[in-house]
What we know:
InterPro entries: Aminotrans_3, Aminotrans_3_PPA_site, PyrdxlP-dep_Trfase, PyrdxlP-dep_Trfase_major, PyrdxlP-dep_Trfase_small. The protein has 449 residues and is of the alpha/beta class. The protein has helices at residues 8-18, 65-77, 87-97, 113-128, 145-148, 152-155, 185-202, 228-238, 293-300, 314-329, 332-353, 382-396, 420-448; strands at residues 34-38, 41-44, 49-52, 106-110, 132-136, 165-168, 207-213, 242-246, 273-276, 287-291, 357-363, 366-374, 379-380, 398-399, 401-403, 409-412.
Amino acid sequence: MAEERFKKAETLEMRKRLIGQSLRLFYSDDPVKIVKARGQYLFDENGKRFLDCISNVQHVGHCHPDITKAAAAQMDLLNANSRFLHDNIVLYADRLAATLPEKLSVFYFVNSGSEANDLALRLAEQYTQHEDVIVLDHAYHGHLKSLIDISPYKFRKLTGQKEWVHVAPLPDTYRGIYREEHPNPGQAYADTVKDLIEEISRKGRKIAAFFAESMPSVGGQIILPQGYSSKVAEYVRSAGGVFVADEVQTGFGRTGTHFWAFQLQGEDFCPDIVTMGKPMGNGHPLACVATTVEIAAAFTANGVEYFNTFGGNPVSCAIGLAVLDVIEKEDLRGNAVRVGTHLKDLLKKLQTRHEIIGDVRGVGLFVGLELVTDRQSKTPATKTAAQVVKRLKEEDQICVSTDGPWENILKFKPPMCFSMEDAQLVVQCIDRILTDMKADNLKLENEDI
Length: 449
C-alpha cells in the first residue's frame, strides 16, 4: 500500500488551510482519502477498496501499466516543446485522424478541455468573422472566462448572460419541451435553434458558432434525439456559423458503438470543429482541437502565432498513443457496449419495482438514472439522490455522483474496464437502498397516522 504522509485529519486541515475553498471535495462531510488506484478500483489509506463509477478521465483504468510504461520510457528519452521536430506529435495526429471523418484533418494539441474549447471559440470567430455563439441550456464547457461566458450552468450564478451568447433549449426528451411521445423531437428541437438564429439576425447580429456537447453531461446525461445535429448544422451554416462538437466528456469510444458521440447522429453528420480532452491522456493533461483545412487556414492567416508550451509534447503524445493502443487491444469499446447495455437493462428492471426511478437513459458507459418524487409531475428527488450516493459510499464502498440541473440524476461514467459483475453489484446495492428508504418512509407515514 502506498505510503501515507499525513493522517486523514491532518491532510483535511492542511487542505482547508492551503487550497482554495471554491473546490468541493467528494463526500465533503466525510471525504474518502485515496492513496492508490488500479483499474476501476480506488483504495483508501486503510486499504479499503472502493468501486469507482465516477472517473471517466481514467478512461482505460487507473494506473494502467501500458500507459505508465509509455510515459516513463518517453520521459526518460526526451520531453521538449512542439517547436522541435519530433515523430510523436505527427504519429498521434495521424492516429486520431483515422478515427474521424476525412474533413477533420488538422489538429491543435493543448492540455485541457477548457483550453481546447477556448481555442475552438477563437477558430470559429476567426473563420466566420462573427462573434455570437449559441449554446444549450444548462451547458458547461470549461472554467476559463471565455467558457464561463458560454456555460449557462456557470454564468447564471455569476455575472449573467452576455449579449453575444444565446441559449437554446436542451433537447431533453424526458422533461424538456418536446418529449418521447413527440413524432420528431430531433426536428422540433432543431427548429428552436432555427428560431433563435432568426431572432439574432433581426437584432443585426451574426452567428460564429453553435457549441454543444455531443451528449450533454452536466445537463443530465442527455442523449440527443436523432436528426437534431444534422438539422442544427444546416441552419447554423446557412447563417454563416460553424458547428462545434464538444467531445471532452464523451469521446474515445465511451458510447461503445462509435469512437465519437457525434457519430451517433448518423454518418452524414460531421461537425466543423471537434474538441477533446478528459479521457485522452488517462489522467495525464492532454487535450486537442480537430478542424478542417479551411478553418485552420483562416486561423493561420490572422498572422498571430498560436504556441502552446506543453501542448503536443513527446511525453503527452506517447501517452495518447498508448491510450489508443489499450482501447483497441482490450476491446474497450466492445466492453462499453456489453457492460453498458447490461447496466441499462438492470436499471430498467429496477425502474419497474421503484416508482422513484423516473428515467433510465444512456449509451455505452454513459448512463443516467433520474430520480423523481412523482412520475407524472417529474419533480426531482434531489435529497433521495444525495442519500443514495452517501449510502453507496458508506455501506458498499461504491463511488457514484449526481448530475443534472437539480442534482437528481445518478450518473455512471466509470473507467471503460468496468465489468458485468461491477454493473450487477451497483444495481443490487441501489435496489437494496431504495427498498430500505421506501420501508423507512412507510414506517414514518404509519407513525404519522
